[in-house]
Design brief:
The chain is an all-alpha fold. It is built from 16 helices and no strands. The protein has a domain of 175 residues: MetI-like fold (Orthogonal Bundle). Helix content is 67%, strand content 0%.
């Protein structure tokens, strides 16, 4: 008789070790994977313990959320003056744009989102028509609606524009203009025609060699000196042109890096198929080059969005400028007013920049998945 036992059924499954599942595993892999990471995690926790409670107390527990003026924010121990943000919220969004005409700004925003959202969300809609709408009809509609003076709309000078409205106008104009101009400049810099190549090199190096604040001063102060007597351009229009040219030079270098990363065989494949130069670039080279440099492109967009605050130096009140000007209002003057306004502006900028960053990550993953298929 054998003493061996043979199991006729499977043994019940045992749970995985606790150290290899759940939040414990995540913490080991992400927070304590090495001695340096463990040290940095401990330092971060200590900083949170030290800094987070005072910030929460200032931002929420001791904050003033409702008041008719700044007297409540001047009380000893008062935290953030959110009542100031609530009272000035309209100016933070629209500047001094007339209240009765603000519907035009909202309508412009809706028209822009209606064209941009389907372009950003993966779908089967004809994208060439969406791009054509955003490049031609929408800018005309936006100009007519925002400026007025046509079709019975009241004229609103750009000097009355301000707040987030100006920030978005400058940033979106710069973004929309910099990418196509940057692509053309990058292609021109790699051109075999010496005249075109030299022109693009000079253009790129000139605009990259001067700071944006100098470009804005030049467009606002110096440009009118070179125009014929009696001719002038709107101050906002000058800023838009300066920002577009400045950002296109940086974008050109990003795109040129993507073009250099495309293997030479891809260029030769286009020639072998009998494609023209522009057909080869449009269908073979540029899609690969732009996909490669998505992080660099989005990084330029984020930097441009933050650089819009520099328009304050030429008298245009963007979001940060309108917050700064309103923080000196005697009615709301308090030790916490300016700080609260700056925190609000920083949060708005962070929302937009973080959104662009996450969208770029989404696009990278989606394109990588498509390439793997």
């Amino acid at each position: 008789m054998s003493d061996h036992f043979v199991r006729t059924t499977h043994a019940p499954a045992k749970p995985a070790p606790r150290i290899q599942i759940g939040w414990v595993r995540w913490a080991r892999e992400n927070l304590f994977s090495s001695l340096l990471n463990s040290l940095l995690t401990v330092i971060a926790v200590v900083l949170l313990v030290v800094m987070l409670p005072p910030f929460l107390d200032w931002a929420f527990f001791s904050a003033v959320f409702s008041a008719v003026d700044g007297s409540a924010c001047r009380v000893d121990g008062a935290g953030a003056c959110w009542a100031f943000v609530e009272a000035k919220f309209g100016q933070f969004l629209f500047g001094r744009y007339p209240d009765a005409e603000k519907w035009r700004v909202v309508l412009t925003l809706i028209l822009g989102i209606a064209g941009l959202a389907p372009l950003l969300i993966p779908n089967r809609l004809p994208r060439q028509w969406l791009v054509a709408y955003l490049l031609v009809p929408f800018p005309i509609l936006a100009f007519v609606l925002l400026s007025g003076g046509f079709f019975g709309l009241e004229k609103v000078e750009t000097s009355d524009w301000g707040g987030l409205m100006v920030t978005l106008v400058v940033a979106l104009t710069g973004i929309a203009a910099s990418l196509p101009l940057g692509v053309l400049l990058a292609l021109g810099r790699r051109s075999e025609m010496p005249v075109i190549r030299m022109f693009c090199v000079i253009f790129i190096e000139f605009w990259r060699g001067v700071p944006l604040i100098t470009v804005l001063f030049m467009s606002s102060v110096m440009l009118p000196l070179f125009l014929p007597e009696g001719m002038s351009f709107d101050k906002l229009l000058r800023a838009l042109i300066g920002v577009a040219l400045f950002s296109s030079a940086y974008m050109a270098e990003v795109v040129r890096g993507g073009l250099a990363a495309v293997p030479a065989g891809q260029y030769e494949a286009g020639k072998a198929l009998g494609l023209t130069y522009w057909q080869s670039m449009n269908r073979i080279v540029l899609p690969q080059a732009l996909t490669t440099v998505i992080p660099g492109i989005v990084n330029n967009f984020i930097g441009l969005f933050k650089d819009t605050t520099l328009v304050l130096v030429i008298g245009l009140f963007d979001l940060l400028g309108i917050v700064q000007s309103n923080s000196t209002d005697p009615t709301w003057l308090s030790p916490q007013t300016a700080t609260t306004g700056y925190v609000f502006a920083a949060f708005v900028f962070w929302i937009f920049c973080f959104g662009m960053s996450r969208y770029s990550v989404f696009m990278e993953r989606r394109l990588e998945a498509g390439a793997q298929r």
